[in-house]
């Protein structure tokens, strides 16, 4: 049915209704048409058929709204049978039987049609209301917020599933209960009962929010921080008929906020404060020192050789070492002091309100004493050496940047000097550079001025007992400090990239010295040189070695290049290529510190290595630890199975020498046979043997 409206008054409304007239008699059909045409309120679109079968065929094709059935249809036994078949064909249509009088028909149709229209409207309204309620139910059941509805008296009428979870009340149990019983909230600060926002919303007829730091107490006593708002509900007359409370659990977001605030000021690995928090505390410490006429000290702590731990034992062990160091450092200071991880293997300690600089020295001594014994990390006994730099406010600066800079530079002074373990800004100020850049320049200047020298340590052939080779060791002959060892300046050289230039100089100078010894008539004397990762992976390293051999004229077999496991395993396939190129030249190749890392046996077998040098740390444990002897024997057996030449490093005692002899090492070196010495002294040693 279609309805067309024209004007505001009902009289101006035209209703068009599809009508199917089933009538055999033409006169009766005409009378019905005339009667229906006189109705001004309804307009009928009439379709007439004469037989029941025609009507049924028509209904099969399309629906109609009103069907008038004549009494004497030729293809029907009776009017009742006709109506039954028509009803089966169109169950929604209005079906009326016809009689001789047609005057009643318009009024009856108008009433019935209007009633059906009203009923249809009601059904549509009910359907729309059902859909809206279903939409609201699904929405309330799906949202992450909790929702509670109350009546005007503050009694619960509805809880959505999230509200059931957060309050511990089932909706069926909560309905009719006072809101305060179901929605029990307290102040997070005073622990007192908090004012219920729904009551405010009803009384003031406006949306209100919950006080900050409110806690919802579940039915089982569990507490959760929440945030919420309440709004009044109105009936059709605009009167307040209840309230709706919407709230959510903010415990996780509060915890995340606290965690993010913590991580913003703390190191994630060690849990120590970071540089940002240390800056704040240092500023505060300086203010307190000024106010109370005290002093403040800053200690820079650096782990010497930490990179080697990472390279040989892996980064996981390295992380555990840093955590253990953080714990030891924290145990060495007061609770009012601050330990900070400055980055990498550097730590900074803030000592607040000290009386005199000697107080900082006492802490430094305590720290050094704590690391005097090996640190056991995942079963590995690790002896850690520290370099400490100390600066004191106000003697060494009147700002945080100045104090930091002085302590940092003092630490580097300790690293490269002969001082036992720490540098003191106040005492050593005139004897060391004040910044890392100055230290970098000083090392570069030392290289340019030729302050580096080579020392040579003999390697003894265990079959003949004679010198069978020599290892080259670099030293820095500083005019002020004397002899400086590689562990004290090589980290700076690696950081600045100067290690490449130093490494090339070592190879050139060592090969030149071998050529000198050959000209003096000495037998072939292979020289072993350790190569750093930066040198080895430099694209021009192999051509450089070839050029040096050509310039010095020595036999390539008299040059042995040593690489640690970590260097080779960093990029094993690329290492394989470079090693093979060196092997093709005729250079001998050695793996240094064998047994201290985690190299792959698959690659170890494929690397064109001639010599395996057993790590001296393992040799140190031969006497004290039986397990170390077992490990050493396994490494020796492995080396022999791989048909590699075996060199024992760090042989210092008779017991260690006996072990080396019984295990049939090919070569041994260490203080037992000779200390590193200058080329002149080593030449005299060769003369004696000759």
From TrEMBL:
Residues 294-427 form the GGDEF domain. Gene3D superfamilies: 3.30.70.270, EAL domain (3.20.20.450), PAS domain (3.30.450.20). It holds the Pfam family PAS. Residues 132-205 form the PAS domain. Its cofactor is Mg(2+). One of its GO terms (biological process) is regulation of DNA-templated transcription. It comes from the Bacteria. Residues 210-262 form the PAC domain. GO terms for molecular function: catalytic activity. Residues 436-690 form the EAL domain. This is PAS domain S-box-containing protein/diguanylate cyclase (GGDEF)-like protein.
């Amino acid at each position: 049915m279609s309805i067309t409206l024209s004007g505001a008054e009902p009289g101006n409304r035209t209703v068009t209704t599809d009508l199917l007239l089933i009538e055999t008699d033409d006169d009766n059909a005409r009378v019905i048409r005339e009667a229906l045409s006189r109705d001004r309120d309804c307009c009928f679109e009439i379709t007439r058929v004469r037989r029941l079968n025609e009507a049924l065929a028509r209904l099969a094709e399309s629906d109609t709204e009103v069907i008038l059935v004549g009494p004497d249809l030729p293809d029907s036994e009776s009017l009742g049978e006709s109506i039954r078949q028509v009803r089966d064909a169109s169950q929604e249509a209005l079906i009326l039987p016809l009689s001789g009088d047609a005057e009643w028909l318009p009024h009856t149709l108008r009433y019935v049609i209007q009633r059906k229209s009203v009923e249809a409207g009601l059904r549509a309204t009910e359907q729309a209301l059902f859909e809206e309620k279903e939409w609201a139910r699904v929405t309330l059941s799906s949202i992450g917020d909790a929702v509670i509805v109350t009546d005007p008296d503050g009694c619960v009428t509805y809880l959505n599933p999230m509200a059931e979870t957060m309050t511990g009340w089932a909706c069926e149990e909560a309905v009719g209960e006072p809101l305060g019983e179901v929605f029990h909230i307290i102040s997070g600060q005073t622990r007192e009962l908090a004012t219920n926002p729904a009551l405010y919303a009803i009384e003031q007829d406006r949306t209100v929010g919950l006080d900050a730091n409110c806690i919802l107490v579940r039915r089982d006593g569990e507490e959760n921080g929440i945030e919420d708002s309440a709004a009044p509900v109105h009936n059709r007359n605009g009167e307040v008929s209840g309230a709706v409370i919407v709230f959510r659990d903010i415990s996780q977001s509060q915890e995340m906020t606290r965690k993010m605030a913590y991580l913003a000021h703390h190191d994630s690995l060690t849990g120590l404060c970071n540089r940002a928090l240390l800056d704040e505390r240092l500023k505060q410490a300086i203010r307190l020192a000024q106010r109370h006429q005290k002093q403040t000290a800053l200690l820079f702590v650096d782990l010497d050789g930490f990179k080697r731990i990472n390279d040989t034992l892996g980064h996981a062990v390295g992380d555990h070492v840093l955590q253990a160091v953080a714990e030891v450092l924290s145990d060495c200071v007061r609770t009012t002091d601050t330990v900070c991880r400055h980055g990498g293997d550097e730590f900074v300690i803030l000592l607040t309100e000290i009386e005199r600089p000697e107080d900082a020295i006492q802490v430094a001594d305590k720290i050094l004493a704590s690391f005097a014994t090996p640190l056991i990390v995942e079963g590995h006994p690790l002896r850690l050496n520290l370099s400490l730099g100390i600066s004191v406010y106000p003697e060494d600066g009147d700002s945080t940047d100045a104090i930091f800079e002085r302590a940092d530079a003092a630490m580097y002074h300790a690293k490269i000097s002969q001082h036992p373990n720490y540098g003191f800004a106040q005492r050593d100020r005139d004897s060391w550079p004040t910044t890392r850049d100055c230290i970098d320049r000083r090392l570069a200047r030392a290289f340019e001025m030729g302050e580096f020298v080579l020392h040579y340590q003999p390697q003894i052939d265990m079959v003949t007992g004679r010198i069978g080779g020599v290892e080259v060791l670099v030293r820095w002959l500083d005019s002020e400090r004397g002899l400086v060892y590689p562990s004290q300046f090589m980290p700076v050289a690696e950081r600045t990239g100067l290690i490449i230039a130093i490494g090339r100089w070592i190879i050139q100078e060592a090969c030149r010295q071998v050529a000198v010894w050959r000209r003096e008539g000495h037998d072939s004397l292979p020289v072993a040189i350790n190569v750093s990762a930066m040198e080895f992976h430099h694209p021009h390293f192999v051509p450089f070695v070839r050029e040096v051999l050509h310039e010095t004229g020595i036999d390539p077999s008299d040059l042995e290049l040593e690489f640690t496991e970590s260097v080779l395993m960093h990029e094993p396939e690329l290492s394989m290529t470079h090693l093979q190129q060196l092997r093709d030249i005729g250079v001998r190749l050695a793996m240094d510190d064998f047994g201290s890392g985690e190299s792959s046996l698959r690659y170890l077998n494929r690397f064109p290595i001639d010599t395996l040098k057993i790590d001296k740390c393992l040799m140190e444990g031969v006497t004290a630890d039986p397990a170390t002897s077992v490990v050493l024997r396994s490494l020796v057996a492995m080396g022999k199975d791989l048909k590699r030449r075996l060199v024992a490093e760090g042989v210092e005692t008779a017991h260690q020498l006996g072990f080396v002899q019984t295990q049939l090492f090919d070569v041994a070196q260490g203080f037992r046979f000779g200390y590193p010495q200058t080329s002149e002294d080593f030449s005299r040693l060769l003369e004696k043997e000759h």
